[in-house]
Amino acid sequence: MIKSPEGTLSLELEPIREGVARAFLRFSPRNLRLAADSAQKLSEELRSRSFSKMLLQDSRRRIVSRTLAPFGWKVDRAIHPELKRHCTMVSTYDLPLDENLIDSDGNKPELANTYNMQGIGIKAGGRNAWAFFTEDGDTARLITEGERRQGLMVATSTEDMFEVADCLVSFLAASKKSWAVFSVDMGRFVRKYDPITLMRLTLDSPKAFDHKVMPLSKSNKRAILRLFSEYYDESGLQSMIRLRKLRSEGRYQLFVVDGGFVITRLEGDTGLIYDIYVTPSRQGQGLGKELMKGALTSLANRVSSVYLHTSYPRAKSLYEKFGFKLAYSQLGIRLDEVALIPPRD
User: Fold this and answer.
1) Contact call for residues 120 and 130 (beta carbons, < 8 A)
2) Which of 39, 32, 104 is nearest to 70 (CA)?
3) Per-residue DSSP letters for 92-122?
4) Mean of the pLDDT values across residues 250-262?
5) Contact predicate 129/155, CB 8 Å
6) DSSP letters of 274-286?
7) How far apart are CA 58 and CA 27, in angstroms?
8) Are 148 and 223 members of one domain?
9) What is the pTM of this model?
């Protein structure tokens, strides 16, 4: 964490494998520009961690990349969008059913209810292979699990699926998707991309707590808009539009403390912790715990269960203290990450 007169920047480093870490970025204010001495301190702090590569989703203004480049750091896209081989757009109707095809589990492909999936086909060692996914905004999902099924891979050999998975990731990056989400059982095909573990946690029968958070009001509206701008990395006008939309839908509730906010959403008899954020200068002061207390209190006696999504191991520990349990995990590849390589001595 770098605290300076111009603002605060934090990078939470999570080791992935030997020599490689993923950095989760938080910064305040949104237009933060570190002065020369603060920038040098950031470079020295990161170099002291002895990682040979750090993966990062940088801000829209590339705050970390621009700060580190003058100190000799190499900044490159973690996933290059260039297609290394020719692929064609296909649907599941294009699959040749007279061939001995298998899915990623080695079974005959189940094609029922796959009409809404998009896909690519490639030649792998002279053989055909395919990958199908479901679009969800800027996310592509290749989920093979039961009722959540949103994709599949098909080939005549399991080995060919490594090649079609590589082609799919490059294709999605070239298509300017932000995320590619895979089932955990697909991990062996995309391990080389160091996917993030995306966790869904659930809590039955939420209870009320004493807390200090306040609901959205005229007196704290400006503070929420400032925090929105930081968290969502957007302009003040975009934050105003976001807040107006949340308020107009009626299912959302917003709560704030000095330095953080939480948003909840009602989904029938279920509640969602939609977003929770603590500005970096106030991290480690118990605000996350206070926001969770306020969120759960707002949902107590209104829903039978609550769920949330997270990819932060530290945040997962906080949620587990309130009784949340892991429901399932998926693997997410952030297609617009950058790779930071420290300078050589």
Assistant:
1) yes
2) 39
3) GGGS-TTS--EETTSSPP--TT-TT-EEEEE
4) 96
5) yes
6) EEEEE-GGGTTSS
7) 11
8) no
9) 0.90
Overall size of the chain counted in residues: 345
Residues 7-20: tens digit of each pLDDT: 999 999 999 999 99
Among residues 72, 102, 122, the one where a domain terminates is 72
Q: What is the CATH number of the domain that holds 214?
A: 3.40.630.30
In a domain, 262, yes or no: yes
Residues 6+ apart with CB under 8 A from 12: 23, 24, 26, 312, 314
Helix axes 313-321, 287-299, angle to 10 degrees: 50
* pLDDT in the model for residue 164: 94
What's the CA gap between 47 and 224, in Å, rounded?
Answer: 35
**Is 310 part of a structural domain of the chain?**
no
Residues 114 and 32 in one domain: no
Query: Which of the listed residues 137, 159, 193 is the one where a domain comes to its end?
Result: 193
Let me know whether 240 and 265 are in one domain: yes
Give the Cα separation of 235 and 191 in Å (integer): 35
Specify if 338 maps to a domain: no
Number of domains observed in the structure of the chain: 3
Of 306, 298, 296, 294, nearest to 269 by C-alpha is: 306
In a domain, 250, yes or no: yes
């094609």: which residue's tokens? Answer: 111
CA distance 24 to 36: 22
Q: Over the Cα atoms of the chain, what is R_g? A: 22
Non-local (6+) Cβ contacts of 203 within 8 A are 296, 305, 306, 307, 322, 323, 324, 325
**Do 102 and 174 belong to one domain?**
yes
Q: Which of 123-127, 141-145, 282-286 has the lowest mean pLDDT?
A: 123-127
Give the type of residue at 107: N
Same domain, 177 and 146: yes
pLDDT for the residue 101: 93
pLDDT at 98 over 80: no
How many other C-beta atoms lie within 10 A of the C-beta of residue 2? 20
Q: Domain of 35? A: 2-72
**Helical H segments across the chain, by residue range:** 36-47, 63-68, 158-174, 187-190, 221-231, 236-249, 287-299, 313-321
